[in-house]
Amino acid sequence: MSVFSHPEFDLHEQVNYFHDAKTGLKAIVAVHNSNRGPALGGCRMWNYASDEEALRDVLRLSKGMTYKSALANLDLGGGKSVIIGDARAHKTEALLEMMGRCLESLSGRYIAAEDSGTSVPDLQIMGRHTQYVAGVTERTGIDGQLSNGDPSPATAYGTFIGLKAAVKHKLGRDDLTGLKVAIQGVGNVGYRLAEHLHVAGAELYVTDIHQEQVDKAVSKLNATAVSAADILSLDVDILAPCALGAILNDKTIPTIKAQVIAGASNNQLESAHHDMMLKERGILYAPDFAINAGGIIDIFYERVGHTPAKVTAHIETIAETLAEIFIRSDESGLATGAIANQLAEERFILSTV
Ligand code: NAD
C-alpha cells in the first residue's frame, strides 16, 4: 500500500501507522499541512473494508481539514485520524487509552476531535494519556447553554450567518422575512438552524427520517412537514442541506428550484463538476466547508481561551469569507467551490505561524 503514489496523496507532511496487538488498535494519522498551526481534525472509527480504504479516507479528510481551517482564518493545520474497526464491536476503554498514547507520541503535531464512530466521552478517555484531544471540555456554548463540547450550536449559527450572506448576494436583501427555506435534516445542526431562521421570520419546510424531529419543528417553529423525496425540488428560495453528503448531483441539480443553497452538510457536491453545474443553472452555492466552519472555530477557542463573545465574533467572519467567494466567482466565471479552494490555498500555502 503505497502512500506517495496514492491518488489522494497531496503533499501530505506526515502519515503515521499505529498498531497495538494487546488492544487490537490499528490506526492511521495523517497531517496534511501544518503551515498555519497544529493539524486538528476528527478521529473516525470505521469498519473499513480494507486498509487501503482507511488510507484513502484519512488522506482525503485530512486535506479537507487544511482547507476548512485556512478558509476560516484559524491558526490550525489539517489532519485526521482513523481507527480501523467496528465502533460497536471493537471499541474498548483499553483501545481508546492506547490511541491516546499514540496521539501523545506525535507531540501535538495532530490534535483529535470527535467524528463518526467516536464521541466526546471516547475522546475524554484518550485524554487520560494525551493533552492532544479537543472538543472535550464542558463550556458555555455560544447559545449560553452549558455543553460537553458539542460544536453543533456554533455550526448552526455559522450556517445561519452564511445563509444570510448568500441571500444578500443573490437576492439583494438583508432580512429573511417571508423567505421560504427547505431544510433537509433537522438534527443537531438543522434544528438549531431552523430556530434561527424562525426568529428571523423565514417560512420553513422540513424533512427528516426521524418523525419526532419533524413534529417538533412543526409544533414549535410553525414549519411545514415535507416528504424526504420532495425536499430538494421544493419551490422555495433557499435550500439548506443538513443531513447527508453527495446530494447535489446529476439527478438532483436539474430539479432544484431554490436560488440559494446554504446548509451545513459536509461534502454536498457529489463530484467537482457539480459546482459549475449549479453556477450554470444560476443557483448560488455556499461551499459547505466555508459555511459549516462554526464547529471547528468553536473547538479552536477551547484550546486558546474560550469566551462565547470571541467565538461568536469569529464565526461571524464566515459572512465576509463567503461574500469574497461570491464576488470572485461573479468576476472570474469560476464556480464558488473552486473559488473557495483557491482562497483557502492562498491562506495556507504561504502561511507560517
Ligand atoms: P445529526 O445526525 O444530528 O442530524 C442529521 C439529521 O439528518 C438527523 O436528524 C437524521 O435523521 C437526518 N437524516 C439522515 N438522513 C436523512 C435523509 N435521507 N433525509 C432526511 N433527513 C435525514 O447530524 P448533525 O450534527 O446535525 O450534522 C448534520 C450535517 O452537518 C452532517 O453532514 C455533518 O457532517 C455536518 N456538520 C456538522 C457539524 C456539527 O457541528 N455537528 C459541523 C460541520 C458539519
What does this structure look like?
The protein folds into two domains: 3-67 and 76-136, 3-Layer(aba) Sandwich (Rossmann fold); 146-348, NAD(P)-binding Rossmann-like Domain (Rossmann fold, 3-Layer(aba) Sandwich). The chain is built from twelve helices and 13 strands. It has helices spanning 51-71, 87-90, 93-105, 120-126, 152-171, 188-199, 211-221, 273-280, 288-291, 294-304, 308-332, 336-348; strands spanning 14-20, 25-33, 39-46, 77-84, 110-114, 139-140, 146-147, 180-184, 203-207, 224-225, 238-241, 260-261, 284-285. A six-stranded parallel sheet has the order 10-9-8-11-12-13, sandwiched between helices. The protein has a five-stranded mixed sheet with strand order 1-2-4-3-5, sandwiched between helices. It starts with 13 loop residues before the first strand and ends in a 5-residue tail after the last helix. The mean pLDDT is 95. The structure holds nicotinamide-adenine-dinucleotide. Residues 149-351 form the Glutamate/phenylalanine/leucine/valine/L-tryptophan dehydrogenase C-terminal domain. GO terms for molecular function: nucleotide binding; oxidoreductase activity, acting on the CH-NH2 group of donors, NAD or NADP as acceptor. This is Glu/Leu/Phe/Val dehydrogenase.
In CATH, the topology of the largest domain is named Rossmann fold
Largest sheet entry? 6 strands, parallel
- Number of helical segments? 12
List all distinct small molecules, including ions and cofactors, that are bound in this structure.
nicotinamide-adenine-dinucleotide
The total of beta strands comes to 13
The stretches of 5 or more residues where confidence is low (pLDDT under 50) are none
